[in-house]
Specification:
Helix content of chain A: 25-40%
Low-confidence stretches of chain A: none
Radius of gyration of chain A: 24 Å
Number of helices of chain A: 11
Strand order of the largest sheet of chain A: 12-11-7-10-9-8-15
Oligomer: homotetramer
Order of helices and strands of chain A: EHEHEHEHEHEHEHHEEEEEEEHHHEEEEE
Shape of chain A: globular
Distance between the termini of chain A: 67 Å
Strand content of chain A: 25-35%
Largest sheet of chain A: 7 strands, mixed
Structural class of chain A: alpha/beta
Number of strands of chain A: 19
Chain lengths: 398, 398, 398, 398
């Protein structure tokens, strides 16, 4: 049973609060903090939160509070986290952790020095689909993961500060790439070091300084590739998909627009259908359980269960730091137009790992390796072979 | 904060308990009751439930317990419910409520006479998708509902008693038709009286007495049709889908095998993939959040929230009684091979409702009604018209 | 190389002609016949057809013509077919064959007496998906077929005469049920006799005399069930799906709205998207190859190839007659509210077939049959058993 | 009516021949040429082709032949094309056109100098879905295309020479990237010049020299991005998808594994299910019309119709040349690890085009531009604004 201060009452603070209130849970939000007193009061009333304030320090230092949830614009994360560390409170910070790897590292050091519990609220690795797919992956269902694509695109974020590079630290990469990078990293395996990136980023549609569309490739030391696609220019709703390919299997996750809920209406229903949905007539693809599908439910369960068990949660500030470092390299690569190394002053994964050769040498017979076997339309089977000595490639059909 | 006795520790008791334990909730299961003491002990240990017994009465009468959850085979529901009513405890009973409408009515009378809270645990109307679709339907997105199909098919139930007509009261209709009937009824509107049914039922595959496959049509007094399809002969996993058609819209829900989670594995993962899944290699369609997708989460939230608010939940024993009455008529119709009336001694919905004519008379011009307008491949538009006086049908293309 | 007269230039005649002209084929349409001379002339010009007329007999008797395609409203099929038989020409007739089984039988007798080639243009059993699924079914991939559902629903037909019961012979059952009945029959196996039907039919929306929505069940002598769902009240486009369940497998075909083509447009494209699509903005589901997906291409290939090979095509007037007989029984059952027998004066399939028991007696051990085996979430396996002597049902978990 | 020589009788030659024979078409294959006389004889017999040879020149120079179809391994394309040009025959060459841009340019010059009809057999831009989506795109349904992803992955090609870099000119990029590049280019618009590429390529699984997995980004002068993903390491069948995003819309095409045909079988059917399918039990996703879905049907129709009309087909050798140039740049970029320019000595598209700014300045009021408008879960609408003078970003909620 925890007593929580929610710092920030925008869309993300609202999602977090809704999640924590919905399940008749024993963890309670006892303090709400917003920029404006009036806004805090209104939020507290709406969600039956006993106390509120516009003073961040006061909220964090409230004696009853043992856990601080940071749901603020990116440029304010550091301030809130340092206050929480100082106050000796557990701190859960929304994504991205910081506006740069350097800032993230300061925050990580602060919480580690203070010895407080720290959780990185990267909700999209906590969706029930993702958790189950990660579990299957770890159990070997996909063999070795070779490639993981994560995509998040929609028509653009809902608050002004996102569009302002100074406050957010970047555009679509900072806003959504942070999700995609961590999703791919989770499938590839966190013990593998991300080495370098190539990245395209452009401002294609909106009258802003930051990029509104970007694609990047992150190469890991075991040869795997993480691919992210982010956009604020997408039309049709919110596209939230992951695809993973391994030597033995494949995973396709569709989190938002094709989840088994399809609705057509010629007349509409006068209101909100799903996050980022465009309109309420024609064919629509609502999501049944939005907060579950976005991972908020399992994320908070993991955070509080880990806290109670005296363990680290699945996502810590260290993970947030890694993600920020990858994002930094992406912005650099988009400028230099070459692959850029990911600088990690603090790397805690497997060390010096050489590329583990995945290339499998399956024996066909004494003289040949098997490259491939395929059933042909004619009903025959074809084997593509490689001569062990000469390397010559040939085929046999039977 | 409720103190719960769970009566029955089979698959459904396990699902209920898992749901209640998972969300760090404040409602607690304090007593577990199974047929055998050893089984009860094992279950209590697994789920950290403080007390257990094989004595149903003792479990229900436990002074700390305020809520009884009945998770027993069908033929035992009545006994448990009467004990709970007698003890003045809130009682939540799994589906179907009883093995016949007559038995259901006795149970309904007992809880109403005792004045205890009663909830009918029809989980599948509580899936987040269903709740949201019902909400859209009520807001008018579909216009008037004309037809609702609900389908549940798989390879057969997991416990012996289901296959024994004497213990279960029937076959696939009793087991799964009860879900489908209530789902369709919820979309059509509970105020509308179900009038009559036609039904096909057969034992096509399994060496049992009960039907392992059935299809039925339920006609409501407003002209709408509920359609159920249930089978224990289905291959490929569990098929759990609803389709609703209205004058202004359409809803398609796929709850299990096509929810945006697709996985291929050539090697498997050595274990359980999803309820009723056949094997763990090849293409698989796991469900991310199984207990959420089956409605258990929102169902218990509604039950306990309603209890706290002093209101009836969305599904009460009265609903269970209606469903049993429809099931009874289905079994009769399958025998007599004709449409059979649904006998409802206790009807609390809209009364004497005539068929509300949906037939719309849209004016085309002074002389004609519009039957239909369609865009043709040529780019032209065609209007099908009916002469207001003569009734003659004609068309105009422009 | 055939010389064809197309009799009828409405939507279906247009689809047929487009199909025959598109593939640089060697079979040629040399004569077009429409109700009005001007319409025939316009059609002939559009499709570069050398001759045209409004005189049906003249078109059919044209000396160059060897094949007559009847693409007329239902009430005119008989007249055209009798003329073709008389003229000794091969005749291909659109669906339904006739407005009643009696009329269909007359037409069948006429072409058989005349010894001319006769093909029933039931396109929807000729879609490439259906042909491949039927082939897999015949090869045993589904085991014994237990149930086949075929569904065709949209907002209503495109020509005035469809809506006039006198000219069409019925409503949605006559228009689209004929497709669904033959699709289900093809999966179940044409050698199996359709025995009886139950049917619901109603006029729910349109100001017409015929039914605009219907569902029916057709029971075959081998215990299989064909299910059709037809509607002119559906919203959202054209829903064209088949589902087949067998003892060993399942087939799901979606022919129209979910075929791997999804498009969102906020602005539209100013025109036709797909047959029966509602509008050109929002999410749309066009069909790539409409004439292929509706079966027209493979249907005509089969017809002309069969003609050249001196064989019967896959679909003959006999099949059309069976379908009309089932439709007749459906209309009767919708009236009498009981299962009605299907009257087949001319039955050429397997005779006196008893219900082939599908019920499988799989041995578990010396004392028990196996009813079912299932992998449980816990990882254990459960076997449901039946005692060979007592019939008692029990379970074992390991 | 054309008389065709098919040069090459491997899988692609078989696909082409099947396509040309299937539709009762008037164009005839009169000559088959294979490496070995016996193979040619067998192929000719199977497809009822009157003449055959193992002498390529003889086949091409055959006096009856007016059209040569080159269906050979990549390293032999040039030889066959030059012979055809010399003989003054129309020539249709399979993809990729050549093993390098330089070679492609020689071939282009040869056919242009000879004045013969030349078609580039890039089938995947001719699928009915692609053609219809391209048509919608050109009509403006997507607005300006911003990004086009094309993906082709499977377990590897079916013939030995593909795996041998010397014979094929490369690995998965050469084999399948050529498709993806031309698909993206078609959506973005062929008048736009492809400028530069970044590319990742690796040999992750197979014991070969060429890449078996690659991802690349192609930037066009109008700011659009083409993205290709190709792999010979994919598990689960053949993944063939295109996704296009524009300022006003979105297109998603799934050509192979999710086309509305789903089948489960516990027993299989003893044979081929679909190209690259893995096995014949479990859930399978056959394709109804394989040759149609791969574009072969419409491709040949366009080729012969264009020939008869004296026009260029949609895909000419010039297109093949452009694709080879992009492929060359990809191989270079994969080596140099930086964006590489695409060298086009022969560019025939729009010239000197500056990046057309897509960035839209929509007015909100006299002082502000509108960045974005969104419906919030609360039902309110939020507008994100930019001050016209100061550039400051703000928001309004109503």
């Amino acid at each position: 049973m925890h007593k929580i201060a929610i710092i920030g009452t925008g869309l993300i603070g609202r999602f977090y609060t809704t999640t924590l209130k919905h399940y008749r849970g024993k963890d309670e939000i006892v303090m709400a903090c917003a920029k404006e007193e009036a806004e805090a009061a209104k939020f507290a009333e709406e969600f039956a939160i006993p106390r509120y304030t516009s003073d961040m320090a006061k909220a964090i230092q409230d004696p009853e509070v043992d856990t601080v949830i940071v749901a603020l614009p990116n440029y304010l994360h550091k301030k809130a986290v340092l206050l929480a560390a100082e106050a000796g409170k557990a701190v859960l910070c929304t994504k991205p952790l910081a506006t740069s790897a350097e800032e993230a590292r300061e925050m990580l050091e602060a919480v580690e020095k203070a010895g407080v519990f720290h959780g990185y609220l990267e909700d999209l690795v906590y969706t029930p689909k993702t958790l189950k797919a990660l579990d299957s992956t770890r159990k070997g269902a996909l063999g070795k993961v070779l490639w993981a694509r994560s995509r998040e695109t929609h028509g653009g974020p809902h608050s002004d500060w996102f569009w302002n590079k100074e406050l957010s630290g970047g555009g679509a990469i900072m806003d959504m790439g942070c999700h995609c990078i961590e999703i791919a990293r989770s499938f590839i395996g966190k013990e593998n070091r991300p080495i370098e990136v190539t990245c395209w980023a452009d401002t294609q549609v909106h009258p802003i300084d930051a990029e509104d569309h970007a694609v990047g490739l992150v190469r890991y030391d075991n040869g795997a590739i993480g691919q992210f696609e982010v956009s604020w220019t997408f039309r049709g709703g919110m596209d939230l998909r992951d695809e993973v390919s391994g030597t033995e299997g494949t995973v396709w996750l569709n989190h938002w627009m094709r989840t088994g809920f399809e609705m057509f209406s010629s007349v509409g229903q006068g209101g909100y259908v799903a996050e980022k949905a465009e309109g309420d007539t024609g064919w629509m693809f609502p999501v049944g359980d939005e907060i579950g599908a976005l991972g908020y439910v399992e994320m908070f369960l993991d955070m509080f269960n880990a806290m109670d068990a005296g363990k680290a949660p699945m996502e810590t500030f260290y993970d947030g730091y890694i993600v920020n470092a990858v994002v930094d390299a992406c912005y650099k690569a988009a400028q230099t137009k070459q692959w850029e190394p990911i600088e990690l002053k603090d790397w805690r994964g497997a060390d010096g790992s050489e590329k583990a050769t995945t290339q499998a040498l399956k024996e066909y017979d004494a003289e040949h390796y098997l490259i491939k076997e395929e059933l042909m339309p004619s009903g025959a089977t074809k084997w593509i072979l490689k001569d062990k000595k000469t390397g010559a490639i040939s085929q046999v059909v039977k």
